[in-house]
Amino acid sequence: MITVKLYSSIRKYGGKEIMFEYRKGLVVRDIIEELKIPIKEISIIILNHYDNTTDKMIDREVKESSLIHLFPPMAGG
């Protein structure tokens, strides 16, 4: 199983945490598309404790038991 955690405004696409069945060749983009989250709404992706911008992480392969965190753009003060 793969665990996907959604944060802030993108929780509207599935709640706080979603479980996905692993399948060979699965990449982060596949999960985002299955959740119907527009890519422009994701700013940071963390895959198994490695994070980077969406464009650098979107096509990374997902392994069995992976943990993915998806964050929207954020502002703060």
Please provide a brief summary of the model.
Helix content is 14%, strand content 29%.
Give the helices and strands, then pairings.
Blueprint: E1 2-6, E2 17-20, H1 28-34, E3 44-47, E4 50-53, H2 54-57, E5 67-71
Parallel strand pairs: 1-5
Antiparallel strand pairs: 1-2, 3-4, 3-5
Could you please describe the fold and organization of this structure?
This protein is an alpha+beta fold and 77 residues long. The protein has one domain (2-71): Beta-grasp domain (Ubiquitin-like (UB roll)). It has helices at 28-34, 54-57; strands at residues 2-6, 17-20, 44-47, 50-53, 67-71. It has a five-stranded mixed beta sheet with strand order 2-1-5-3-4. Strand 3 and strand 4 form a beta hairpin. The termini are far apart.
Question: Which descriptors apply to this entry?
Answer:
2 helices, Ubiquitin-like (UB roll), 29% strand, five-stranded mixed sheet, 77 residues, 14% helix, alpha+beta
Whole-number average pLDDT?
93
C-alpha termini separation: 37 Å
What is the number of domains? Answer: 1
Q: How many strands appear in the DSSP assignment?
A: 5
As a percent range, the share of helical residues equals 10-25%
Under the CATH scheme, the architecture is Roll
CATH homologous superfamily designation: Beta-grasp domain
Order of helices and strands: EEHEEHE
**Which regions have little confidence, pLDDT < 50, spanning 5+ residues?**
none
Individual helix count: 2
Lateral arrangement of strands in the main beta sheet: 2-1-5-3-4
- Work out the radius of gyration: 12 Å
The CATH topology annotation reads as: Ubiquitin-like (UB roll)
Which CATH C-level class is it? Alpha Beta
Tell me, briefly, the overall form. Answer: globular
Largest sheet: 5 strands, mixed
